[in-house]
Specification:
The complex is a heterodimer. By secondary structure, chain A is an alpha+beta fold. Helix content of chain A is 47%, strand content 22%. In chain A, strands 1-3-2-6-5-4 form a 6-stranded antiparallel β-sheet, with helices on both faces. In chain A, a hairpin with a 4-residue loop joins β4 and β5 (84-92). The radius of gyration of chain A is 15 Å and the shape is globular. The model of chain A has no long low-confidence stretch (mean pLDDT 88). Chain B is α+β, with helices and mostly antiparallel strands. In chain B, 38% of the residues lie in helices and 30% in strands. Chain B is built from 3 helices and 5 strands, in the order αββαβββα. The longest helix of chain B is centred in the middle third of the chain and has 21 residues, at 42-62. Chain B is globular, with a radius of gyration of 13 Å. Chain B starts with 5 loop residues before the first helix and ends with a helix. The chains are: A alpha+beta, B alpha+beta. At the A-B interface, α3 of A face α2 of B.
Chain lengths: 156, 115
Amino acid sequence: MKLQVAADWVEAPLKAFVDDARAEIAVLMHPSGQVLGQTGFTRSVDVQTACALGAAIYASAGELGRQMQGKPFGVMHYAGQEKQIFLAPVPIEGGTLLLLSVFGEESSLGLVQLFFQDFQRAAARVAPQWKGAETALAGDFEAELNKNLAAMFGRG
Amino acid sequence: MSTPFSGILAGLIRHRGVKGCLVVGERDGLIVDSTVQFGVNPQTFAALTASLFRKARRAAQAAGFGDATFVQLEAEQGRVCAVGRGDLVLVVVAEPRVNLGLVRVDMLKATEALS
């Protein structure tokens, strides 16, 4: 599977996660929906959609968790009939990223959880400090998003 | 907390040389119940063993041998045995000196209770 990244540091940990956990799709993003790397999608519009939905789900679940237990929910897992979705926060210095992963019969929740822990550790080690507030609230969100998608899919 | 599998696990852990036994979901690799006396993360072990058993089962089916009934892994310092039924896998971790025949019989008996 082809791995596409908008930031070089993403490549090694994301590739290791996808290979080890047998994930069919993996997308690393900012909670704002900005994509940092992905594998499994072939069209940029699908990545955009996945990021927007993943960020929205995480935000909604976070708020629901705050309402119900005073703190946001962490990892989310949905088991479909054939595919399963795993969405989890990846703490790095200065902020949190999100990993959205889709897996099927070749993997399991236990394996994904196991190798996600490795991914978290690797990302925390190699990720540069993230200026989260600037990225999330920047006026040029769309330009940043397009820049990242262009870096990954090779067009502006 | 007692589960329907607590009795099975309590019986298996009494065998000399058995260091741990777990009931694990085959599809998700998550622990349903366990009794472990070894120094590894049981979640990690369960996820990997369930994956191993699933692949062994599929390999047996692909070879036309039917369902895998008993899977054994021999390593330098121990053995991992697994039996499965339905969506559950019963896993035993043991030292090399374990009476494997006895453990195997008890594990196969226990599969009745897994479904």
